[in-house]
Amino acid sequence: MKRFIIVGHKASTSGDFSLNDMPGGAGRMDVLCRCVNSSLFLSHDLRRDVECYLVLQGEPDPPKTILFSGERVRYLNPDERSAGSLIKKALAATCRDEFSESTKGVYVRRGGLDRLLSEFQVALLDENGEDIRTMAELPDAYLLSDHMNFAEEEEALIQDVQKVSVGPKILHADHTITIMLNEMDRRENPSEL
Fold first, then answer.
1. What is the maximal distance between C-alpha atoms in the chain?
2. Is the pTM of this model over 0.85?
3. Which fold has domain 1-188?
């Protein structure tokens, strides 16, 4: 299973936001929606072997984690509003300490980055990390930030995490996910190159 964890520093933890104002009123939820789509969509299909975790740290009730399972998700279309709508439904559901399903293949629970780091061995996607093209083996789980840098307390949590890079430039999180998945695809199917 391939996993992407994206931290949304200002992303709303209430489903009261408008789908017409995800960049402003929802704390840049649009960035997270693009990451969901980059993680899960192929042309005319979904990546069934990918999970996308959104760590929402905005007001009024942080932190919450939303999981999109490529294997089980339904009702997701390749546009930001579709992902945003499923996030709204997840945030409207009762949030417990363990994942509960809000819609098919979308889950929500209390807790944030520290909990996910205790559950998975992750690599931080960072332009100063080891180039993925020179690595013998690639990790299975990756951590990214939204449009903001990691906060000081997050930096303390990830100081010993392996850093890997898709290139020398700083890219948007959703573009980084696409490049990472492309590299994985190429390694899994070398005869198709």
1. 50
2. yes
3. Alpha/beta knot (3.40.1280)
